[in-house]
Each structure stands twice: as structure tokens, then as C-alpha cells.
Amino acid sequence: MKSVLPKAVEKLSNVLSSLPGVGPKTANRLTFYLLGRSDDELQQFGQAFSTLKESVVNCSTCHIVAETDPCPICSDTSREIEKLAVVEESLDVLALEKARFSGRYHVLGGQISPINNVGPEDLAISHLLSRLEEGSIKEVILATDPSLEGEATALYIDEQVKTKQQQKLISDDVKVTRLARGLPVGGDLEYADELTLSRALEGRRSYSTD
Fold first, then answer.
1. 138 pLDDT above the threshold of 60
2. In 3D, which of 22, 21, 18, 132 has the Cα closest to residue 86?
């Protein structure tokens, strides 16, 4: 069946529908919403999209998306440098910041997921181990999502830390903990409310595979 929509409208709807959580109907509604905006507003949208990747960098220390390298968190001397929260994505950092976490971060860039062809080598795990070898970090808080992939990622990191400790490359004083089970299984960290995250941080425990 031939589309009755103008090609420009159909093209934008197709682009929008490729975004996570945006179906064809929502994409069409967004497209027609944009059609009703002024030219100035559309230019602002276009400029924001076109300059998005030009104005951000990945922090070479923690891998968070930021405007500067190092990022403001890594540059903040008031943070507790002995505590390191390991998260999957930069959005997870925002969630933990709302829960008033005062340590520093390490963004993995995803989770181990064989079904999606993502292995440990595709994540910033080797750099994480290198940071632990430096000796300033005393606690690694595994804050990956409470899903099968998140648990697999946490398990792998814990095993790697233990191996490095046996090799005397990482101090035995480094403790690996996991966020408490206040977080829903199968949920995403970025959608957790502040109270749940705060309790999960307070109730973290030693992460052991024994």
C-alpha cells in the first residue's frame, strides 16, 4: 500500500522509530508535533543533534560521557577515592549521584551478553583492573543491573579481581561488594528511585562467588 505521508515526514518517522522504546505510532506523533513547531525551534533541535557528539568526550579515567577530560567527578578532590562504583552506562552514574554516592566511578560501557556478541574484551574491564592495581581503591562496588547479564558481568569482575589478588597484582585489602537486593531483579539502574538506591548503597555486602 502506497504511503499517503510526504516523504520527508515518513523519513523522519522512520528515523525516530529506530530509537529505543519508540514505536511507529509514537514516531508519527513526534513527527507531527515537530511539524507544528516554529522554524526557530526546529533549528534549535537540528543544531542540538548536529553538535551532540562534537561537544562531548569520554573521560579517560572513568569513561563517563563528559565535556572535559578528566571529568568533573574525577577532578573533584573531595570525593572518596577509596570507593569505586562500577556501573554499566553513564546514565547509571546520574542515578547514583541522586542517591548521594560520594565515591568515584568506572563505566564499563555495557554488560557481558553472549547473545548480543558482547564479551569482557568489549567492555572497560581491563582498565578497571589496572585502576585497582594502582592501590588507592579499597572497595569496588559492583553496581551493574540486577539482571542475568548484569549478574554475569559482576561475577566475571569479581573472579578477575580474585585472580589478580592471588597473583599479588591487586592488594588483598581491596573488597568487592554488590548493591543490596533492594533493586528489582530484571530492572534498570537508571529507573530506580532515589530511596531504593540509597538503601541499596547502605545495605551493600561483600561479593563472593564461594
1. yes
2. 132
